[in-house]
Amino acid sequence: MPHRNVDSLTVMIAGYAQNGFVQKALETFKQMQLAGVKPDSTTFSSLFPTCAKMGGLEQGMNVHQDLIERRFWADVSVANTLMDMYAKCGRIHKSSEIFGKILKRDLVSWNSRLAGYAQNGFVEKVIETFNQMLLADIMPDFTTCARILPACAKMEALELGMNLHQSTIKSGFLSDVVTANALIDMYAKCGSKLKAREVLNRLP
């Protein structure tokens, strides 16, 4: 292509990232900057998961700096991927800082925060964040259940696990085998074998 614009270069970055060519994705971003092509929100949303995959904290921080300069801070999808990147690189305090700056948090924002705490072993924070999520009138989904139920099992928080079980029934999530497996595990670890068997028997 004689002329490459932000769209074509972003497609290449995303393509490299999705197929595991992490270094190539970062090199393309560097070429983009050298060519004077300004990245957009989609570019950043592709780059942060790439840095998270390779544990490239330094590269991620450099991209973060560029994000601040480009003023894409208000984009919730970009902020979500940035928050996730810091959590996966073990910088949970930075991830929390980003979460605190998001003005309009969506379900992905909350799930990313839950995942960050779960990945870094902050089990009590997982449950605390889930309660905050409910207070913010954000309804859980499959991903939420996958984060919360193992935390309930670890802390033997049977009551919370049962409340989440009711939410899965109302939302129709119980047909999802991953959610059902997490429920069975939670009930078994909380000593409620009959409830675990009940969930198992309902699986199609």
Descriptive notes:
This protein is an all-alpha fold and about 200 residues long. It has a domain at about 1-100: Serine Threonine Protein Phosphatase 5, Tetratricopeptide repeat. The chain contains twelve helices and no strands. Helix 7 (about 105-120) runs antiparallel to helix 8.
Rounded to an integer in angstroms, the radius of gyration calculated over CA atoms is 20 Å
Helix content: over 70%
Measured between the Cα atoms of the first and last residue, the distance is 52 Å
Unreliably modeled segments: none
Q: Give the number of helices.
A: 12
CATH topology of the domain at 1-98: Serine Threonine Protein Phosphatase 5, Tetratricopeptide repeat
Described by strand count, sense and barrel closure, the largest sheet is: none
Q: Return the average pLDDT rounded to an integer.
A: 85
CATH class value of the domain at 1-98: Mainly Alpha
Structural class: mainly alpha
Number of strands: 0
CATH architecture of the domain at 1-98: Alpha Horseshoe
Following the backbone from N to C, one meets helices and strands in this order, namely: HHHHHHHHHHHH
